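Oligogalacturonide transporter
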Amino acid sequence: MEYYGKKPNYNMAHRIMFGMAEFYGGGAFVIINTFFTVFLIKALGMPAALAGTIPLVGKIWDAITDPMMGNITDRTVSKFGAKRFYIFVGGIASSVTFLLLWLTIPSRSIWAMYFFYLIMFCLFSTGFTILMVPYNGLLPDMIDDYTMRSKFSTVRMVWSTLGSMVCGLVPSFIIKDNTKPAQYMTCAVLFSILFFITTTVTFIGTWEKKKEPVKTTLRESFPQSISVLKSRSFKLFLGIYLFGQCGMDFVSGMAVYYIDDVLNGYSNGYFIYLMATILVSQLVGMVFWGPIMSKTSKRTTILIGAPTRLIGTLGLLAFSYEGASIVPVLVLTAFIGFGNAATLTSIFAIMADMAEVDELITSIRRPGIVSGMATFARKISSGLSAAGIGFLLAAVGFDENIANAGQRQALSTQKGIAMIYIVVPAILITLLFITAVVFPLTGREFDIIQKEIARRKGEDTSSITEEEKRICEKVTGFSYENLWKAENAKKLVKDA
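Structure:
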């Protein structure tokens, strides 16, 4: 097998270099989910319901760019490897567009600000797409082994957590007054530089299999992308991805409001304590859950981690009022972070395995298309969360003028904010657990899928057993006779 980039090496140094781009993937959204709507609402005075629609409307643009980027990645030929090439280009684009999000315009017109930041968000989202779609599709073209992919994914998630820690805590020291726009820009400059450095290291430290590009047109991007959804495993994976990530998006997106308006502890440093607790516990959890995932399955850690998150989340109901001790809040937050480490590690490890399931269905190796749909799902989860936060804040009577003046919200609004922070994530965690229960792919099934692909390619002369046929059908959602057909990559209706 020939490769672009470095010679394949599975030691810890190369796992670290592979994972470094996730500093951006995990960190950028922490800053955006935690501070972007706060920037718009508290620093600029934009109405909460209006500010919350910006990330969601931006996702409409993603419905175009993500499938196209997945297709472009699979079609590209480069001496660096298609995915590595776009990781380098995307690292530059992501750093610049992240900075643009925090510019302050001279106009105080609400609609002028709205359309300006909507355009900036779409530019940022495009930069994210250029980088993360190829990055999400890189691991299947680096490594074939199920367990080794888990090890690389674990290190990637450690970087994600480090990104979350740095991006969750450092802005809290810079943005001491959340009504001052200049403090947000200072933060943006720092992190734009860090994002560029870490993504460049990933480009330098990775490799990619040499293979024939997929011969599709840009016009086929959308039917190709939609066809990925015919896979039973991929549909369930999206459920796991969305429910798992949306739950944490609500935690990070509502944390400032929960600390400031419910506990009245922002000026006392409670926000820093809470973010430090959830991120440190998540980092400890990554180290703890990684070996367990390698020895059991990627599904098992979700089935343990989701209930752990749920216990911590529901426990907050007893301590969500002004004057409550911060200690039990932090203890329960540690449960949330520790449980999230299990679910987060598993989600990205599972993502790498979806390319093989899709290949068995279509006979085409197209990890770019698969990762494009997964990246789109991640952005949808973030957009829905941000929009949901905006609408729910408006529904419980949040007054942006009071917030901009640095005053306290009404008591009924405080109670409503507490319910948003606790009940919505609890519902999403429950849905995550249910979806994980029925998810059909573990290491055993993955090995059977790989073996069947080898048979179809003529690389394995063994005969398939009836049990293996049933597993292939269960994992893909297709009858055995309808697998390995190129038309499955274009037809929008699945064969029975």
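The chain has a mean pLDDT of 91.
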